Amino acid sequence: MSLNHDSGYGARPRFWFAVYQLLWHLLLPLAFIRLAWRARHSVDYLSYLPERLGFGYRKPITQGAIWIHAVSVGETRAAQPLVEAYLARGESIVLTHMTLNGRRTGAALFANAMASGQIQQVYIPYDLCWSVSRFLRTFKPKMGLFMETEAWPTIVFYCAQIELPLFLVNARLSERSARRVNRFGKAGRALFQAFAGILAQTEFDAQRYRSLGVTNVEIVGNLKFDVPLDEILIKQGKVFKQANHAEKRLMVCAASTRDGEEAIILKVWKDLLLSHAFEVAPLLCLVPRHPERFSEVADQIRASELTFRRRTEWSEIPKDMVGSDITELEVLLGDSMGEMLMYYSASDLVVMGGSLLPFGGQNSAKIALDWRSTKAMNPASTMKLLTTLSSLDILGPQYRWRTKLFTDGFIRQGTLKGNIYLQGTGDPKLVPEELARMMKDLQNLGIQKIDGNLLFDRSAYAPSVMETNTIDGESLRAYNVSPDPLLYAFRTLSFQLSKARNADFIDISYTPSLSQFKIVNQMQLVDRACDNWKKDVRFEINPEVISTTPPPDLTAKFLGSFPATCKDVNYNIVALDANTFLTQGFSAAWQAAGGVWAQPPSGKNEIVPISARSLLQFDGSNLADDVQDINKYSNNVMARQLMLTLALEKIGKPATTENGGLVIQGWLKEMGLQFPELIIENGAGLSRNEVISAEHMNQLLLTARNLPVSQTFYNSLPVAGTDGTMKNRLLTQLGKFLNLKKKPEVRIKTGTLSDVRAISGYVTSKSGKIYLVTSFINHPNAWKGLEAHDQLLAWLLEDGPEPKQAR
Fold this sequence. Notes:
The chain is of the alpha/beta class. It is 33% helix and 21% strand.
């Protein structure tokens, strides 16, 4: 096989391909020497050697089948739902692997189909032009599906040349790998462009493939989430766990460890046991990644003088394992295949191999660190992640709220003679800038003067959700504002106070503008520090509610003392009822646009009558922008209104929090996520009742990476040292990486209540690994947890070295 001049790949790819073929032929003896070396542990490495060169296949040969290539264990397990789906359709399959463990796994998973002849299992040939050609001529597959990252140039180009559709399935491409491909220029990019299609796991992966010039990319999610879990293994693990807990033993599983990591783990474990830190000594379950190393690791444990037994010494699980001898064990060696799920289920804490030494990342679905992750806990504002992600996926990033304006009058000579009805649907960001746009839209209808009142239709929400209910009694604080279908500027007056530059008096400005509103300043300047300046400031507003026509002036009065050292400090307060705030805000915006009132409006609630005619429909900002405000600045009322919007759009009005919760629960079910402990009260986390486990919050983060809205969701999270609630955190730790070309990044949603500290999000480490991290602290002293969370994030930035080195 060769790249012909008319293949379309150009001269440089042909040159690199020739070099690649030459290297393969020169190094081929080393490939067989490597197999012989590994055969020291298992002679099976020398089985089926001719298949490595494209011949020696057992008959009958399966031709015209679907060819699925899964290089090793993880890819084979990931391919299981795909293989089973094709088998159910009656298709024949040629299943290829590169590793012995991949072949063993495939043989175990699909034994029945192989026995019936529906699956033929062989090794993929080495990437030599003649061995690949011989393989394809022998099997003549009708389509090829390669799992995850496999892209062998000879196979890919040859399939393109003979017009055999070859797809890269469950595809993932790291930032580092994309850069490596680009180093080969057109030759590297041509390799991925030659696939018939690439089915990527996430938007991140898809973008990287597109950066290589690949146009036929689709996002289909991660097949590993479709792999059925073995309920028998889970049950066995739970029985073993219960036996351990009966003895008050903690079980730690070090899973899929690599060569060199066991020595580190065993040393730390021995030191831990000698420290007598536990009343009852914990149990280590050590599971090496490669079966051929089981005996080698057993020797290491023996040399460490730790009491251990091998899993294979028990004939039955868990019956034989819960006898009296298990209480004396210090280490359990998991030297079995296909039982990892049992070990996970039995353990209280799991540490993933590949994370202690620089081997490169494991697949994105593996656990790196786990501690009490299944316990239902109050997540505080990190609950907004569930609300925003589900809303982005259900409504779409371009969703816009609609505020409709009606009238029961008519327009004549620039005057609207009649009332204006505002009918809201819960736009969470109807702010002064948006209201100014609405005024221009009104004027574009030819209206210069309004001779009528303002009437507000809030029928989109059930009355109960608009009631003021707080968990701390602070009804005047902005974070406690109740939902409102016609919420304006978060119903919050924001005053800015500062000592005047050239005089001994206090400047006070405010937003949003309100008509018939004045400020009376009776504060005294005092010479003291600006710390805790609010304690000596008193605020009054009269009247708080307007119920007369015409409405009286509003007066905001500041009393007390104000430190002269304070500059541009903010005083935010929810001091007016919803109708007064919206009426005076709308009136001021109309006047600022040059409009005139025949008489000042008083504003009241009234449903739009059937006889009213439409004036205009005002579309607010899009959901993608609003989600940024919700997550970066932890806006509670916006999150609550977003959940009510789900209820309004999917179930209908009046929207209730209960219906919003049902929509989210339905979405979770559709995503295949089962969170039995989940309690949703308002979707904002401003609750003593909302709970979720850290394990399930991390599952949510992982699911997000497989959705089309993944990038929008990711961009909405606060960036440590840059913006939002993480703006002033990890500044020192991130400063250590300023010399790196590719900077590490921490995108974390935070949550805080009086007895809760929470973080959840993504950490991109210095090596480019992406960690999903969730930590909940529920304790009266939770406020002390900020430093602990920062240490955890700093540790992940460093790829998890000794904790002291990550400080």
